[in-house]
Recover the amino acids of this structure.
């Protein structure tokens, strides 16, 4: 066990280790420096090249901030209804989105789909499109199709939610414990029966958990749908901005924060209840 | 509402005749099932009532609903087709795409830089200031995350004027909140052993972070960074709609001039670059997963 | 040695609002002691060890280490004192992705400034001493190996080296061998005893394996239900004493 290393041998070893460490350290530092350079160059473009600093003086910034700071608390009672609308929009949108997501999840799960491989690809494509298009863009599209108002917002958020819910449910279906499936097949069940009795019970908790999560996210999205004409607090904010009522805008933002906090509390407890 | 058959009955004292006992158990199960079915039915009624109330409150024109899909298809086919690709194939727009990319990179980087110390403070297992700093940091991260990035954009455009500066700052705040949550979750999931050992050896909170926490979360944090960039890029394509720079500003302009074919072209490019970003981030995360396996 | 290195008086502890885990335990440890704490599970052995360096906060009593009452110290001073107490853990508590050398060097963090710590640039003497200790515990070949590639016994040796790098005046050892198989357990215990003797520092160790305890200790402390039921030389631990420690409570 005792190698009997002399002081020289020990020092030599320490030196070797130090040199090796320095080399690998240099590589890491170089990589980080390159990344910092990239970010710095972009930052320079944004801050220096693109910004008209003559218009952003300390006083103009402070003035604007001051305007926002004078929160118009008188607006709060008027915001109760839009807040309720926002919450309801989010709820309906999540339910609708979940309903639309289920068949898509079914088609997108390789072990459960009745239509084979092409349907899986198609379904996954739908999920990706749903997630890649920003909710604002969906909002614009649905306002064009269904007119101004909360319906457009609900549809937009529903379609946006399809992606996440169906992706997680499809993955849950594909990751389902094969034991019960095997057992059902052994007693002669057909594909649909297997789906109902062996797969679905495993998937339902995942579905519920993710629906609650998505509901929480949709409350957040719901607050801005009104900015493109789809009702709720977003509309109130748009109106205040259009009238240059910055204090009013702050009031709306406060209500938004409060609504989201309530939503997070509710979703936190709801998720604990299912587990 | 389907009631599941109960799997156990309450334990009984010394049973009389087996037949009588079975009948009692069966009767109890029937009653339970009836209660559950009744309860489920009532819940369904309540749900429907709420739904009706909500629809009425929101003034949803249900009669318009069936036509929506058809009208959407009609609108897309007549007004948005064919997309005017010439509008996006010019230098100014390509510049805007590059701007969008730059905004997303800076926002992700600065957002992560801001989120890392906040996540450390907010994690309840290793926070260096558990009494005051921890709840404050948590609150700050939640506030950053709760306000939608478009709201941040509008607020900052008002204060700082149009352009990429406001957009980047707004996206940075969003990133800080979004990434902060992921980073804090990773920290809260670490093995407490090394943390305990280093504390026992007399290491200070900063040392504990760099020696016991960071090595354990390095991989998760790298994944979070990639994911955050992916999400912020999606938002960056749209912030221009509210006055910040990038592709969104073209979108706004075309929408205002009601040039739907231009809008179609812009939307197509937006979807295309977002898909590309998702592919890139997916590949990067897969590489990361392989590198640490 | 006249003054004991460690003097514990009336130590009390409880977790949250649960029942009391330690109900006033007192003992002292001299420089050449190898004190092993035994007792049934739930007796408070592990809590006792952790109370000494305040990984668990006691609710009452005194813990005098080299004359200073650790329980009265503010956080900064506690940190400074902890540098002189080495601890070896049941779960090894190493950073899995780091090398043996880095894990051992972590023992020196209490003596190293923040910038050096972050840059991992320890002083030359620290590096040399770490290598020496790694050699002493028999892991010379594995200096750069990642710790999660080592066996249980090897990992515990890393833990021992880390504790020793602190130049401690006391070693706290929490169930060092519970995760190891018997032969390796014996080797690890022998190593701990040897190195403690070499630098003349006391060991306070808790164990559930009485036979192993008897083999290596110089003194035994028996706990039951948070109270001291026995204190003395291993030879004095007879059937009656064992009964007092391990007696089952009447349900």
């Amino acid at each position: 066990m005792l190698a009997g290393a002399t002081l020289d041998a020990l020092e030599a070893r320490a030196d070797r280790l130090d040199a090796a460490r320095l080399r690998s350290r240099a590589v890491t530092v170089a990589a980080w420096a390159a990344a910092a350079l990239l970010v710095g160059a972009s930052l320079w473009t944004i801050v220096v090249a693109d910004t008209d600093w003559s218009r952003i003086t300390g006083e103009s910034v402070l003035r604007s901030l001051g305007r926002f700071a004078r929160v118009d608390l008188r607006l709060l009672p008027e915001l109760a209804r839009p807040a309720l609308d926002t919450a309801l929009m989010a709820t309906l949108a999540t339910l609708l989105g979940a309903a639309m997501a289920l068949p898509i999840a079914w088609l997108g799960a390789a072990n459960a789909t009745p239509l084979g491989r092409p349907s899986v690809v198609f379904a996954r494509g739908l999920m990706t499109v749903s997630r890649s298009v920003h909710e604002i863009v969906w909002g614009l599209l649905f306002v064009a199709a269904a007119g101004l108002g909360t319906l457009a917002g609900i549809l937009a958020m529903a379609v946006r939610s399809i992606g996440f819910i169906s992706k997680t449910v499809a993955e849950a279906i594909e990751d389902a414990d094969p034991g019960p499936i095997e057992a059902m097949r052994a007693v002669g069940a057909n594909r649909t029966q297997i789906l109902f009795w062996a797969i679905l019970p495993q998937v339902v908790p995942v579905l519920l958990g993710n629906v609650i999560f998505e509901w929480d996210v949709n409350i957040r999205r719901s607050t801005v749908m009104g900015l493109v004409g789809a009702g709720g607090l977003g509309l109130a904010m748009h109106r205040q901005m259009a009238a240059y009522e910055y204090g009013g805008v702050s009031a709306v933002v406060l209500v938004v924060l409060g609504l989201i906090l309530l939503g997070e509390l509710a979703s936190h407890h709801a998720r604990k209840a299912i587990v | 509402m389907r009631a599941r058959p109960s799997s156990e009955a309450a334990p009984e004292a010394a049973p009389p005749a087996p037949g009588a006992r079975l009948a009692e158990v069966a009767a109890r199960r029937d009653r339970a099932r009836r209660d559950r079915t009744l309860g489920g039915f009532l819940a369904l009624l309540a749900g429907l009532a709420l739904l009706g109330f909500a629809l009425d409150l929101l003034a949803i024109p249900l009669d318009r609903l069936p036509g929506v899909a058809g009208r959407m298809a009609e609108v897309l086919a007549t007004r948005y087709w064919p997309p005017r690709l010439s509008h996006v194939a010019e230098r100014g727009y390509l510049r805007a795409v590059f701007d969008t990319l730059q905004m997303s990179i800076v926002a992700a980087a600065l957002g992560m830089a801001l989120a890392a110390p906040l996540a450390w403070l907010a994690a309840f297992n290793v926070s260096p200031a558990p009494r005051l700093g921890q709840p404050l940091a948590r609150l700050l991260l939640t506030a950053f995350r709760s306000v939608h990035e478009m709201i941040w954009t509008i607020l900052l455009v008002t204060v700082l004027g149009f352009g990429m500066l406001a957009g980047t700052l707004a996206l940075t705040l969003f990133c800080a909140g979004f990434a902060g949550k992921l980073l804090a979750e990773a920290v809260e999931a670490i093995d407490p052993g090394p943390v305990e050992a280093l504390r026992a050896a007399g290491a200070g909170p900063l040392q504990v972070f760099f020696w016991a926490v960071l090595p354990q979360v390095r991989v998760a944090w790298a994944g979070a960074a990639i994911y955050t960039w992916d999400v912020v890029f999606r938002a960056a394509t749209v912030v221009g709609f509210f006055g910040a720079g990038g592709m969104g500003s073209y979108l706004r302009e075309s929408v205002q001039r009601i040039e739907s074919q231009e809008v179609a072209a812009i939307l197509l490019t937006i979807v295309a670059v977002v898909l590309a970003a998702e592919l890139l981030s997916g590949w990067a995360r897969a590489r990361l997963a392989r590198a640490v396996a | 040695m006249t003054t004991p290195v460690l003097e514990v008086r009336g130590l009390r502890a409880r977790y949250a609002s649960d029942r009391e885990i330690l109900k006033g335990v007192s003992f002292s440890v001299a420089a050449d002691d190898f004190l092993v704490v035994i007792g049934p599970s739930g007796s408070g052995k592990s809590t006792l060890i952790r109370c000494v360096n305040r990984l668990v906060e006691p609710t009452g009593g005194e813990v005098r280490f080299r004359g200073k009452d650790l329980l009265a110290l503010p956080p900064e001073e506690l940190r400074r004192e902890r540098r002189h107490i080495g601890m070896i853990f049941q779960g090894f508590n190493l950073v899995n992705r780091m090398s043996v050398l880095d894990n051992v060097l972590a023992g020196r963090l209490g003596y190293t400034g923040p910038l050096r710590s972050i840059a991992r640039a320890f002083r030359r003497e620290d590096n040399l001493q770490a290598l020496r200790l790694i050699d002493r515990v028999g892991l010379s070949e594995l200096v750069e190996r990642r710790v999660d590639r080592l066996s249980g016994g090897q990992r515990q040796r890393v833990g021992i080296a880390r504790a020793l790098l602190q130049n401690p005046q006391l070693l706290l050892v929490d169930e060092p061998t519970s995760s190891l198989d018997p032969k390796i357990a014996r080797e690890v215990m022998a190593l701990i005893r040897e190195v403690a003797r070499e630098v003349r520092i006391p060991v306070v160790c808790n164990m559930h394996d009485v036979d192993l305890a008897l083999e290596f200790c110089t003194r035994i402390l028996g706990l039951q239900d948070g109270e001291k039921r026995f204190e003395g030389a291993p030879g004095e631990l007879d059937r009656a004493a064992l009964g007092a420690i391990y007696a089952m409570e009447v349900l």
User: Anything to note?
Assistant: Strands of chain C lie at 6-14, 20-29, 34-38, 60-65, 68-69, 85-88, 170-174, 203-206, 219-224, 227-232.
